[in-house]
Structures are given as structure tokens and as C-alpha cells.
Amino acid sequence: MKLEQNEKPLLFSETCIPDIFFSEHLSEIPGEYLKIYLYIIFLSKYGKDIKLNDLSKKLNIPLKSINEGLKFLEEHSLILKKTSGYILIDLQEQTLHNLYTPNLTESKEKVQQTAKNKSRAKAIEHINNMYFQGIMGPSWYNDIDIWFRKYDFDEQVMIALFDYCYKRSALHRNYIQKVAEAWASNKIKTWNDLDIYYQQQESLNKIKKSIAKKLGKYNGLTQYEEAYIENWILNFGYQMNIIEIALKRTTLKQNSTFEYINTIITDWHERNLKTPEEVQAFLEQQKKQQKSAKQLKSKVSKANYEQRKYENLDFLYSNKLNDNN
Question: If you classify domain 10-92 with CATH, what class do you get?
Fold first, then answer.
């Protein structure tokens, strides 16, 4: 790529990075990719060609990671690929463009509505002070406003969303977006909705741990096994008092699997069995039916045996008559 010649000697020169980079992009860039980006900024002041092999050796990063890093930086609009190489994107200009363009399409009614929403503005300011030390990047304001409108969260839920991600050291857009979508899919809009969801998740995790312990899965459950349990609880409405009945029945079968347990519980759900008492009554009835069927089979087998015995004797008797003749 073509780079401008720096007028100062290396000893006295500086490499400037706009503050918008730290507030908007730093948290999203993996370590090795960050090294690549910073070194590209440094080299952009000098009029020299940059070879990927040289970049790999200089930074002590595998060539494969160099290529992957450049692709990542391009996808996140930090650099732009040209036929002759790459150029750095002006982050300040880009942020200004992203902030200004959406406002042109907003209706006057929406702008007025946003301006009047003082409680929402207070929530955003709280997020800024609490999780960004008062220097939240400008585009975050636009993102938060979009999430408010898209998911219809109230102010407490929005603050809780940032608090949840902050405590998990994942305060970047992609993660926040995924959590927001998960909450929205569980019909969370108010603080009361979120509180019920937390209680439900806590109960769900306890049941998962209990099931794993009872089945001897000390290394934990797989993602698919957890999905089975969530279906039993969230969709079927079953609690541990019913699930445990199914777990006990695994002792009747060698090498039982989650699929086998799921077949049992799904059958109960399809039969509209809702309580442990109804399940136990069904199992008792099933046991009696199996016993009756076994007895009937035994009688039929005995009758068939007697019939065959009679037919065999009759055959022998017929032979004796023939012999006498």
C-alpha cells in the first residue's frame, strides 16, 4: 500500500489513535488482531510496502493468523482492502456518518418521542457512568435506542442487560445483542418479567445438576442433554418429582440413554399426565395390563400345546388302526 513519508525522525515521532477507537472498537478485537491493527497504524506513516511474511515475522504471529486478522479488521470496518493493499478507515468520520445517516430517516414524531422520554435518557446516562466510566462512544447511544425500540425493554431491563454482560467481561455489541435476543425470545419486557425469568433459570439449573448427579454424569451434561431437560420443564411443565420417576425406570434397562428417558417422559406428556399421582396410576395400570397380557399369552401357549398333543396322539392312533388292517 502507498504510505506518506513522515517528516520527524522515528525517535521523536508519535502514532496517534482516536479516542473513538477505545470506546467503540477495542473490546471487540482479539489480542493478536489488535497487535496487527496497531502495527499497521504505526507503519501507515512510512512510505514502504508491507509484505505479509515480514509482518508475520516482525509480530511473531503465524501467517495464517495474519490473514485471519486482516479479514477480521476488514469485516469490522477498521481497514479497507484495495487492489494494492489496505488503507486505514477514518474511525471518526465513519462514526459520524453512522450516527447522522439513521437520523435522516427517522420521522419527526419519533425524534420528539425520544426527546420526551426522560426516564430512558436517565437509564442511558446511568449505563454510561456505570459501565463506561462516563466516556461511552457516540454510536452506543444509537444502539441502545435501537434495542429499546426493537425489544420494547423497560429502563430497568436495559440497565440489567448491560450489568449482566459487564459482570461476564463481555461488554461488546455482539454479546449484548445475543443476550437481548435471548431475553426477548423469553418474552422479557419488564423488570418483573426478568425476575421471573431469573427464578426460572435458577430452578432449571438446580434440576439439571440434580439429574446429572443421579445419572452419574459428574463431568456435566451435554448441550443436547440440557435441551431435553429444558423441553421437559419449560414446554411440558414437568418438575423433578415427575422426572425422577422416569430416571428410576432407567434402572430397569441397561445402557439407558437420554433418548430413552425422553421417550418415556414424552409419552406421559402426550397422554396428558400432569402429576406424579397420575403418572404412578398409569404405570400401575400398565403393569396390570402387561401382567394380564402375559397370563393370556401363557394360557394361549398352554392351549396350543394341549391341542398339538391331542393332534399327535390322534395321528398315532390312526397309524395303529392302519397297522391292524
Answer: mainly alpha
